[in-house]
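From the pipeline queue, job 12 of 40. The input is one protein chain; the requested action is below.

Action: predict structure.
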Amino acid sequence: MLALTGQVQTQVIGPGTFQELPLEKAFDAVAEWGQTILHPGNATELAALAMKHAIVMRDVAHLVLPDNVQELPGVEDPPARPRSGRLAATGIAPPPDELARAVELLRTAERPAIVVGNGARPHRDEVMALAEHLDAPVISTFKAKGTFPDDHSLGCGVLGRSGIPVASQTVATADCLLVLGASFSNHTSIPTWVPTIQVDLDPMILGKFHPVEVPLWGDIARTVAELQASLLAVDRPEARQAIATRWRRWRAEKVSRRDLVDAHGRLQPALVFEVLGELVPDDAVIAVDVGNNTYSFGHFFECRGRQDVLMSGYLGSIGFALPAALGASVAVRRAGSGRQVVSISGDGGLGQYLAEVTTLSRRASPSLTWCSTTASWPRSVASSSGPSGRCGRQSSSTPTSPSSPPPAVRPGSQSGRLTSCAPRSRAPCPSPTAPAS
């Protein structure tokens, strides 16, 4: 990420003039690198260094531009761009001896499983090829939701607090884990007692919180290809059968919940995300916010195809979804892909950046859809809170009033977008007695 900020004019920096702030210090806690541009002569080089830090360090670079500098003429003969030789290739392979240890561990495992983190998202094709080669189940962290489709016969969904029993039961039976691009966050709770091969391009992530059996420093795509080339194809029909059985049980559980309403007539999140799953295209970009609605999304929404999920770290910043979806809609429009972008927020998250609805109506791609969900379901009835509150499309003039009855989402057009919201009659929710699942 590159952050560009303005500053007071250079001649008044220092004595604490009106609106002066030490911006480099203010951004220091959240930026890996920062500089102030004072002269056109080095502006190009500072901009190149900022981009290099942002790309190589995968962090925030920050440039400060005082008011008078912003109005200075550029250099008459700027360097040509792009310029080669400033960035090295990242497709590095792990050391051969460490790779051999990982190959042997996978070769002798009877029930290997693959855990994909968000770092593996750019390499989903290579991950799928290895999973099918080994006939190994694939579990996702919450940040990696959608990297491996839930409707694949080896897909097991999300592990951890925002996850489902299919993933946790599969991990519980594994005798070897291949973890790709995951940070071992306590939100995910990847088991530490199972022999583990961890692959990451960032050496600081390897064994960060506890030792792993084989830490592999290398590019994920390159390492996965090396592992696949070194291992014989395996057929494990019992693994696929076990996954299918777990999915049947979990989907039956969701069906049993979806017709419930609470004492206020609010819908069960299982219904909301079931219908949303039917409407969202296979290649949609889905931005999710922070709150109980996000937990419900993790539990009940089943990803398929090449859907991408965007989120704020591990639920760090409320109000993330709508601005992120606006950015994604610009990106897909520039790419000419025509992908639909969906924003899922709670009432609090949407309220944080409600003014962006103006931007949404004026500037955003017509493919952007937003859905606001509110939450107060007891956890003993639902795995997390978050029945639907309001849904709409970018073309809507105003969102539904917060005081209106909570409607359900339902299919409204052949185009597969959210086009209508209407109440549905549901059975009352029984008094909660069973523990949360």
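Job complete. The chain is about 30% helix and 20% strand.
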